Amino acid sequence: MTAAAKPVPFKRVARPDRIPGRSPRQAIPFLLPGLLVLGALVVYPLLYSMVRSFFDRTGDEFVGLGNYVDLFTDPRTLTAFKNNVIWVVVAPAAVTGLGLILAVLTERIRWATAFRLVLFMPMAISLFASGIIFRLVYEEDPNQGIVNAVAVGVHDMFAAQSSFPGARPRQGAPITATPDGYATNSSFRPGDVVTVPMVGFQPQQLPDTAADAALPAADSDELRGAVWLDVSAGGMAAKTDSGERGLPGVIVEAVADGKVVARTTTGSNGIFTFPDLANRDYALRLPPSNFALPFRGLTWLGPSLITPVIISSWIWIMTGFAITFIAAGLSAIPRDALEAARVDGATEWQVFKRVTVPLLTPVLLVVFVTLVINVLKIFELVFVIAPGSVQEEANVLALQMWQVSFGSGGDQGAGSALAVVLFLLVAPAMLFNIRRFRREQT
């Protein structure tokens, strides 16, 4: 008779997806404080904003989707939507592309780390402080704005400045402003003397060659005249008083039948002479090049350039972020793949295009999506850089939400609706990034 089989003792088999020695119950006390803070600062405001968006300004009357309808019919909100589209289309792609180029170019230089550190330094400054810096950089006054200072310097290297910027004829003088410069009101013949008193120019800014003003004597064979600065204190208007000086080097043109038939310049005492004119009627004209105001740069903070200016500021700030991530991705690329391509005869451009970029695609995608999320929430740079007079042209959704809720609007119902719309725009990009992170961890 065979012995009875001994019962096999029961053994608990560990589940493969459970880490031995760790229990979800043990993690709850550590996660609970973080969950409470997250719920108080994120979940509750989100749910409250969703509910608040269905009520009116006071929060007492339910208006349904009325706030959302008003958003898409408000011109300011539509401008903000348009600007956000421009931001999303231009800024993330520019930063990602620039970061890729700089990361690849600096990979082989000796001081790559120091170079990347310098480019990353703007990230260490708050966007509010960066906005103040760029507000000064793009200031229209060349004495304050470095961009216009450079532009004026380059312009003046290739274009001559006018001799007497801002000067204009004295009121009552026989000469008026025209599209082609200052022209006389009546015609003159040889033997006449034309007086052109000027104002609007500082006497101390006259060149050293300027002599005391004088009126020429009439000559039957010549058309003569004088251009001088008629600003002496206590003197008579349109008369050459003591202490007044002529404007040397002013171009004067004799015009007949709409054509310039002769041209001359004034002497040190402001006198000009046309010696070889036929005996007929002429109008005299002073071209605008004599009195054109100096080039002062561009109005960077004006309505037409304000959005590109703010985008360029953001690109300068965020390029260091892109370089850091892409450089980390470059360091993880197998060198065997790059060397194999070079051994096969590929040029550096072909290696970059067919090997480096495809292997970096996951990193580039994460950087791009992260920048899109950042762009959709842009607020500080627009608020600080754009002057109040052009903030409407530079408006974005986040700034519009703040203005509607807490600015002059004071309508938290419409502001909450804008916040919900902004959340719905950001959420897909956030979910995309989360899915990619989870996929990479598995």
Automatic annotation (TrEMBL):
Membrane topology field: Multi-pass membrane protein
UniProtKB keywords: Cell membrane, Membrane, Secreted, Signal, Transmembrane, Transmembrane helix, Transport
Main location, first listed in the record: membrane
Pfam families: BPD_transp_1, SdrD_B
Transmembrane segments: 27-47, 85-105, 117-138, 314-334, 355-376, 414-434
Any one annotated GO CC term: plasma membrane
ABC transmembrane type-1 domain mapped to chain residues: 81-433
One GO process term, biological-process aspect: transmembrane transport
InterPro entries in alphabetical order: MetI-like, MetI-like_sf, Sdr_B, UgpAE/MalFG_permease
Lineage top rank: taxon: Bacteria
Localization, UniProt: Cell membrane; Secreted
Record family assignment: Belongs to the binding-protein-dependent transport system permease family.
Xref: PANTHER family: BLL4140 PROTEIN, DIACETYLCHITOBIOSE UPTAKE SYSTEM PERMEASE PROTEIN DASB
Protein's name in the database: Alpha-glucoside transport system permease protein
Record organism: Lentzea waywayandensis
Source lineage: Bacteria, Bacillati, Actinomycetota, Actinomycetes, Pseudonocardiales
